[in-house]
Design brief:
The chain is about 40% helix and about 15% strand. By secondary structure, the chain is an alpha/beta fold. The structure holds pyridoxal-5'-phosphate (PLP). It comes from Sediminimonas qiaohouensis.
Length: about 325
């Protein structure tokens, strides 16, 4: 059940030429914050604007002859599955909650997939994907809790370690844990001393709460600047809970105000359009929450996606207030 380094190499062969070889670029801002060489792995350069294409391509590759595919998604996984299904001329039905930004819904429709908007949480969307699996015979691809998806995301770890075997610490955005589990598995298989730290937003940090409880727990899903990190890990989690428990050295949580400041920093200093979900590592550094937690050597983080709601993004980078459900993040100009 648990993927191995060999599975990650096999995934790398399957996705080659479509979803691999994203740039690993130096960041003066990350270097300053980390007090060590700082590197950004630009998964935002993927054809769908997010790393999830890796796992989706790897999972869909094994579905020759299926009637079609379905999944629940906070947006980027659905886009990856839609892309992979279109390549195979396969039907794709993507289930999402009303919390998913319209830009992500539009991106999925543009790839020719059917979209179902159901309920207010990932759990509601997942129930619909399960119904489609049972009633219409579509193959369901979990956004994270699937060995092929974890192996696909793990190819990011292979690429980082191949480019820079001297990496000391990897800061990995953490939601369902497919990314963190895959990257940690690959990186530690290659270099056991590498430190891998998962970062989540403090409101609805499903993996963090579950690891603390010792078993998967449900969390309340609320609007967040890191919308791609929303949702639970599944009460019947089979894979990523155990892998994150065994492979992550630490998990750190950041607030919405910290994510806000990090989105500004990445935009103004690195000149990147990055979702709130991908700047959480930088947010943790800016907030001093990683003091004493970094290993010797370069620090790399993964810019996981570039698909924010652009209206919200513009408000953040221009220093305006943003409203997230009943929480207001006070506007603050970058560098003020
Ligand atoms: C899905 C996603 C993540 C988190 O990945 P998990 O495998 O669920 O932990 C982080 N950033 C972005 C942009 C995502 O789409």
């Amino acid at each position: 059940m648990r993927p191995t380094l060999a599975d990650i190499h096999a995934a790398a062969n399957r996705i080659r030429g479509v979803a691999d070889a994203t740039p690993l670029v130096p960041s003066a801002n990350l270097s300053d914050l980390a007090g060590a060489e700082g590197l950004l792995k630009l998964e935002s350069m993927q054809p769908i604007g997010a790393f999830k294409l890796r796992g989706a391509l790897n999972a869909v590759a094994g579905l020759e002859g299926a009637a079609g595919v379905t999944c629940c998604s906070t947006g980027n996984h659905g886009r990856g599955v839609a892309f992979a299904a279109r390549q195979k001329r396969m039907r794709a039905v993507i289930c999402m909650s009303r919390l998913v930004p319209q830009a992500k819904v539009d991106g999925i429709r543009a790839l020719g997939a059917e979209v179902r908007i159901v309920g207010n949480s990932q759990d509601d969307a997942q129930a619909e994907a399960e119904r489609l699996e049972a009633q219409e015979g579509l193959a369901q691809i979990s956004p994270f809790d699937d060995p092929l998806v974890v192996a696909g995301q793990g190819t990011i770890g292979l690429e980082i370690m191949a480019a820079r075997p001297d990496i000391g610490t990897l800061l990995v955005p953490l939601s369902g844990g497919g990314l963190a589990a895959g990257v940690a598995l690959a990186a530690k298989a290659i270099k056991p001393s590498v430190r891998v730290i998962g970062i989540s937003m403090d409101r609805g940090a499903a993996m963090y709460q579950s690891l603390r409880a010792g078993h998967p727990v449900a969390v309340t899903e609320v609007p967040s600047l890191a919308d791609s990190l929303g949702g639970g890990i599944g009460l019947n989690n089979r894979l990523t809970f155990g892998m994150c428990r065994d492979l992550l050295d630490d998990i750190v949580l950041v607030t919405e105000a910290e994510i806000y400041r990090a989105m500004q920093a990445v935009y103004h200093n690195d000149r990147l359009i990055a979702e709130g979900a991908c700047v959480v590592g930088i947010a943790a550094l800016q907030a001093g929450k990683l003091d004493g937690k970094l290993a010797d050597g370069p620090v790399a983080t993964i810019i996981t996606g570039r698909n924010p709601d652009m209206g919200l993004f513009t408000r953040v980078v221009t220093g305006q207030d943003v409203q997230l459900g009943d929480v207001t993040v006070k506007g603050e100009r970058h560098g003020a």
